[in-house]
């Protein structure tokens, strides 16, 4: 192998050990790097910087440095304008994580198991299950708003059955149910496809060996499928946590920008920064929430990744 | 499976029976879920083609189907709907071309070229993957504002070009190519650029097509960032426009569903034809992660 490489190095002067410095590779990465530095690396630091100022978007001449005051207003000063709104929105996002992540993971796994077999029409069903994911959040949310609205399908069927017709878009907990169903419908295909691909990677021989040992389908699922899926399971839980924590468009459209009981953190940051022009405190909210999310995903890796690290 | 003393026919008969039942249960479940995913879409199109007097009624087959809703949202002088459509088309197309160009170059460099700082840079790219996107929202808004790019096409597109998914995707692809072809080209005296452009890139057509489809769809569907930077109604894209008219037409779901259908149709058609590639690229991200 070494001799082959040496021969190649001799044949291609530029790939030898004494090759000349070349700008070419930098030119290749430069276009992406410019945007990367401007819109991913820089804002990371800039966001933290802004959060230390009383940063009024409309008054560029008046931007006093306030140190950690924005953070104190969110964490300690119970009487600040931000405190109550921020923690209510944190709670809202927290509830939505609890409502949405389990079905998005468990039902997706179930769907993937259903799709993982040799039968006619398998790819058609897979295509149908994934289809809503191809839509914009606006389309999904406007559509489900119509389905759940007063004269909508759900309430007209409930009415026919003589059942209670809740105000799905303006009462708790109904609004969360509507938002969760919309979200599951819209995004579960993504998780399903990832699980399905992972299921197809599990060698058949494992299942054959297990069935020779007399394990039934359920036992096989818990003793082979789940352990083999562990890395993908962690991945899916993580991206679902992050996606659900970014909840914004569904409540924005289904229950409205100013319906506080379903206002998630993202909408609070939008309303604080863009609507009220308090960019400093909005940036502080972003930093706090991002840090919390990082901790959450790290815990998730630690808890579910444990046995793998042995 | 059963003990040898059981007559063979009975075993196969019993197995065929349970297999048939499990098949029926399987298909019943599959169809049930398929209805859950499909019927809302059908309902969107059904409501969109109902005349004004009819959209409140819960009938699935319109009595007097009409394209009136589509006509009126495109003809309404207060709604720049045709402009939204063109904005979406233009932004998604140009954005996709830029992403292909930028990410193919960078992906190739990270996969094949050797240069000082490569691992450091690539590590930086990796690190941003674990950072929640919302951290960048407010600072990027201020950057775009300082550049004077609010309410502009470049303002909508620029932050997305920083995305690292496409770079990873192309790097992954180029790493999987056999090196021999490129090495042969180098021996023949081809420059780095020629080797990339004439040898590696033509082999990447499939990967580029996949990246193009998912980038186009993501850009077409994007909501939060365009909502943030596009206040001028004539500059907005369809998803943002649809969100603004839903306040206006709250009590006319026929028109709203027509707007939703116009927003959904292009991506649904794309999806129908290119479903396999889209699903495969998603599956790939999972297996890599």
Domains of chain B, number: 2
The CATH architecture designation of the largest domain in chain B is: Orthogonal Bundle
So what's the CATH class of the largest domain in chain B?
Mainly Alpha
The domain count of chain A comes to 1
Structural class category of chain A: mainly alpha
Percent range for helical residues of chain B? over 70%
The rounded distance between the terminal residues' Cα atoms of chain B is: 39 Å
**CATH architectural grouping of chain A:** Orthogonal Bundle
Range of helix content of chain A: over 70%
What is the helix tally of chain A?
A: 13
Overall outline of chain A: globular
Mind sketching the topology for me?
The complex is a heterodimer of chains A (310) and B (289).
Chain A: H1 2-11, H2 24-50, H3 69-75, H4 81-115, H5 122-130, H6 137-148, H7 153-160, H8 174-201, H9 204-212, H10 217-245, H11 249-254, H12 265-275, H13 279-305
Helix pairs in contact in A: 3-13, 4-8, 4-10, 4-12, 6-8, 8-10, 10-13, 12-13
Chain B: H1 8-48, H2 68-75, H3 81-112, H4 118-129, H5 137-146, H6 153-157, H7 165-176, H8 180-187, H9 192-203, H10 205-221, H11 224-229, H12 238-248, H13 253-288
Overview of the structural elements:
The complex is a heterodimer of chains A (310) and B (289). Chain A has 310 residues and is mainly alpha-helical. Chain A is 70% helix and 0% strand. Chain A has a single domain (69-305), classed as MetI-like (MetI-like fold, Orthogonal Bundle). Chain A contains 13 helices and no strands. In chain A, helix 4 (81-115) runs antiparallel to helix 10 and helix 6 crosses helix 8 (174-201). The longest helix of chain A has 35 residues, at 81-115. The two termini of chain A are 34 Å apart. Residues 6-18 of chain A have low confidence and may be disordered. By secondary structure, chain B is mainly α. Chain B folds into 2 domains: 8-48; 70-288, MetI-like fold. Mean pLDDT of chain B is 88; it is low at 1-11. The two termini of chain B are 39 Å apart. Chain B has helices at residues 8-48, 68-75, 81-112, 118-129, 137-146, 153-157, 165-176, 180-187, 192-203, 205-221, 224-229, 238-248, 253-288. Chain B is 73% helix and 0% strand. At the A-B interface, helix 2, helix 4, helix 5, helix 6 and helix 7 of A face helix 1, helix 3, helix 4, helix 5 and helix 8 of B.
């Amino acid at each position: 192998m070494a001799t082959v490489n040496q021969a190649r190095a001799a044949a291609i002067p530029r790939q030898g050990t004494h090759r000349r410095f070349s700008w070419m590779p930098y030119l290749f990465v430069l276009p992406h790097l410019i945007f990367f530095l401007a819109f991913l690396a820089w804002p990371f630091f800039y966001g933290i910087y802004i959060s230390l100022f009383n940063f009024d978007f409309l008054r560029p001449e008046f931007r006093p440095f306030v140190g950690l005051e924005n953070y104190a207003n969110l964490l300690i000063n119970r009487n600040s304008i931000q405190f109550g709104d921020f923690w209510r929105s944190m709670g809202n996002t927290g509830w939505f994580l609890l409502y949405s992540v389990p079905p998005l993971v468990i039902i997706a796994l179930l769907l993937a198991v259903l799709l993982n077999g040799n039968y006619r029409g398998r790819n058609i069903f897979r295509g149908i299950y994934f289809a809503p994911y191809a839509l914009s959040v606006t389309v999904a949310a406007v559509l489900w708003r119509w389905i759940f609205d007063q004269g909508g399908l759900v309430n007209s069927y409930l009415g026919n059955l003589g059942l209670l017709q809740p105000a799905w878009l303006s009462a708790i907990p109904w609004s969360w149910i509507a938002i969760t169903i919309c979200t599951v419908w819209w995004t579960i295909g993504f998780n399903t496809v990832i699980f399905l691909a992972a299921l197809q990677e599990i060698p058949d021989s494992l299942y054959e060996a297990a069935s020779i040992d007399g394990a039934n389908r359920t036992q096989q699922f818990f003793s082979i499928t789940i352990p083999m899926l562990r890395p993908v399971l962690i991945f899916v839980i993580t991206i679902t946590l992050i996606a659900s924590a970014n909840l914004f468009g569904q409540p924005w459209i289904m229950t409205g920008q100013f319906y506080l009981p379903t206002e998630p953190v993202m909408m609070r940051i939008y309303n604080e920064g863009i609507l009220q022009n308090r960019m400093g405190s909005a940036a502080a909210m972003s930093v706090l929430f991002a840090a919390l999310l990082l901790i959450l995903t790290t815990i998730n890796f630690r808890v579910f990744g444990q046995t793998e690290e042995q | 499976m059963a003990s040898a003393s059981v007559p063979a026919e009975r075993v196969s008969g019993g197995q065929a029976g349970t297999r048939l039942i499990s098949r029926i249960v399987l298909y019943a479940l599959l169809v049930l879920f398929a209805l859950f995913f499909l019927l809302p879409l059908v309902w969107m199109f059904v409501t969109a083609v109902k005349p004004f007097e009819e959209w409140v009624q819960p009938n699935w087959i319109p009595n007097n189907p009409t394209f009136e809703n589509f006509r009126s949202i495109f003809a309404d002088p207060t709604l720049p709907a045709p402009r939204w459509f063109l904005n979406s088309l233009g932004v998604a197309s140009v954005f996709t071309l830029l992403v292909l160009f930028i990410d193919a170059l960078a992906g190739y460099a990270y996969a094949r070229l050797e240069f000082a700082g490569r691992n450091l840079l690539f590590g930086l790219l990796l690190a941003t993957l674990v950072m929640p996107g919302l951290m960048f929202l407010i600072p990027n808004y201020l950057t775009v504002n300082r550049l004077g790019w609010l309410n502009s096409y470049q303002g909508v597109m620029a932050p997305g070009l920083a995305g690292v998914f496409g770079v990873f995707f192309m790097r992954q692809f180029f790493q999987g190519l056999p090196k021999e072809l490129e090495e042969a080209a180098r021996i023949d005296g081809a420059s780095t650029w020629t080797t990339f452009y004439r040898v590696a890139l033509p082999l990447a057509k499939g990967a580029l097509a996949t990246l193009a489809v998912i980038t186009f769809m993501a850009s077409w569907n994007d909501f939060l960032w365009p909502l943030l930077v596009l206040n001028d109604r004539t500059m907005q894209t369809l998803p943002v426009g649809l969100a603004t008219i839903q306040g206006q037409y709250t009590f006319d779901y026929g028109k709203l569903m027509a707007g939703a259908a116009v927003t959904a149709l292009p991506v649904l058609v794309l999806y129908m034809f290119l479903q396999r590639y889209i699903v495969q690229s998603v599956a790939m991200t999972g297996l890599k992660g």
